[in-house]
């Protein structure tokens, strides 16, 4: 099956999903968006109010800042894939619960990663960071790329964090400025292993 069709199938399943309690209050599930050939995949935490209303990821203030960060580094939203750990908005923007995270990542996120097979995965915020760096503090490792299964994983602050804490804005901008070089380096690495599930235990410094 072509990757585009596979992603369409996954996204249709997301929109119809009732696997956890988050579906009960959603207006729209938010599968994610971007080209099937994207070299960079961004993983946020979960949809917010505006995302739930529109069914698209990162369309509020944090999304506008993300667009700004991309364009200032020669990248465009249309060239990257953007999604979240959970595809439905947690009520009141609360933290996603472990069972909700498991339901969504095992059914959808892992399949999206395997389908797109990006060279670089950028985790936005501590929840998506914990998928690859389970015991780390984002304040200590942000912007530091590591490899897993031939793929670069880059933990970064969530753009919303910089909006709430202006002191973080410079750090976020510096981290995003590394992306073009990281993509270039990733191009020279062995291809990501399309069959193997990303395993945090295989992480090593890049």
What does this structure look like?
It is a single chain. The chain has a 6-stranded mixed beta sheet with strand order 2-1-3-5-4-6, sandwiched between helices. It is built from 9 helices and 6 strands. It starts with a helix and ends with a strand. The chain has helices spanning 3-16, 49-54, 61-71, 98-116, 126-132, 138-141, 159-164, 169-176, 179-187, and strands spanning 40-44, 81-84, 120-124, 146-148, 151-156, 204-205. It is globular and about 40 Å long. The chain is an alpha/beta fold and 206 residues long. The longest helix is centred in the middle third of the chain and has 19 residues, at 98-116. A hairpin with a 2-residue loop joins β4 and β5. α1 (3-16) packs antiparallel against α4 (98-116).
- Structural class, by secondary structure, is alpha/beta
Largest sheet: 6 strands, mixed
Query: Please, how many helices?
Result: 9
Spell the H/E element sequence. Answer: HEHHEHEHHEEHHHE
Helix proportion? 40-55%
Secondary structure tally: strands: 6
Oligomeric state of the chains present here: single chain
Terminal Cα span = 33 Å
Radius of gyration: 16 Å
Q: In terms of per-residue confidence, which ranges show pLDDT below 50 for 5 or more consecutive residues?
A: 195-206
pLDDT averaged residue by residue: 91
Which percent band covers the strand fraction? 5-15%
Choose one word for the global shape.
globular
Strand order of the largest sheet: 2-1-3-5-4-6
